[in-house]
Amino acid sequence: MPVEVGVLALQGGVEEHMASLRRLGVTPIPVRRPEDLEQSGSIILPGGESTTLIRLMQRWELVEPVRRMARAGASIWGTCAGAVLLCKKVTEQEHDLRQECLNIVDVHAVRNRFGRQRYSFREDLAVKGLDEAFSGIFIRAPLFEPLDENIEVLSRVEEGAVFLKQGNVWLSSFHPELSGDDRIHELFLRESGIDF
Ligand code: GLN
Predict the structure, then answer these.
(1) Catalytic residue at 80?
(2) Chain segment 43-77, per-residue pLDDT in tens
């Protein structure tokens, strides 16, 4: 399987993820078309706006190729809106939005769980796999509810899970690419068996 790391480059925090990967010595591949995935052994789906992102993924025919990658065991990491896309159930507080998504992990995402942009916050998080706290930046972030026992929660806040994984698929509700701290990218690469 190819070792390069793709970053979905349709909308949102693309550059910040690519910068973090470069600092770790990995050359990222911006993914805009299905053929860009051919060299990618794994992919990061950045934050942005999940409703827009899914529409763009449909338009550029990236939905099925990403699902195929997940089924084939490739590592996939969604941050914030990118994580929402990966979930099998997505609601916004009490409303079932029936937002069309990739339906990959057995997780319920509650979008915008902490309120509007002005309620963005930063919180020191204990993260499984890291020795010291990680400063998590939350911007209109979702909260995750695991729907299956085989989900490993890597970090939580008082309200619930904010970082978890199911097999090869990782979800973070916060934005590690904005913290200027590459330890979570490093953890993802290391646990995904990517050489860097
Ligand atoms: N609230 C956005 C959504 O659900 C996510 C925001 C973000 O990615 N920072 O699509």
Answers:
(1) yes
(2) 999 999 999 999 999 999 999 999 999 999 999 99
Domains and CATH numbers, the chain: 4-191 (3.40.50.880)
Report pLDDT digits (tens) over 79-129. 999 999 999 999 986 666 666 789 999 999 999 998 887 789 999 999 999
**Most informative mutation of 8, 17, 112 for ligand 1 (most atoms within 8 A of CB):** 112
Closest by CA to 105, choosing from 77, 140, 129, is: 77
CA 3/CA 50 separation, integer angstroms: 27
Residue 131: strand, helix, or coil:
coil
Backbone angles phi, psi at 46, to 5 degrees: -75, 175
In terms of Cα–Cα distance, which of 178, 173, 172, 177 is closest to 7?
Answer: 177
Single-letter residue type at 71: R
**Pairing label, strands 87-92, 95-96:** antiparallel
Q: Would you call 149 a catalytic residue per the annotation?
A: no
Q: Is the CB of 166 under 6 A from ligand 1?
A: no
Give the model's pLDDT for residue 1: 45
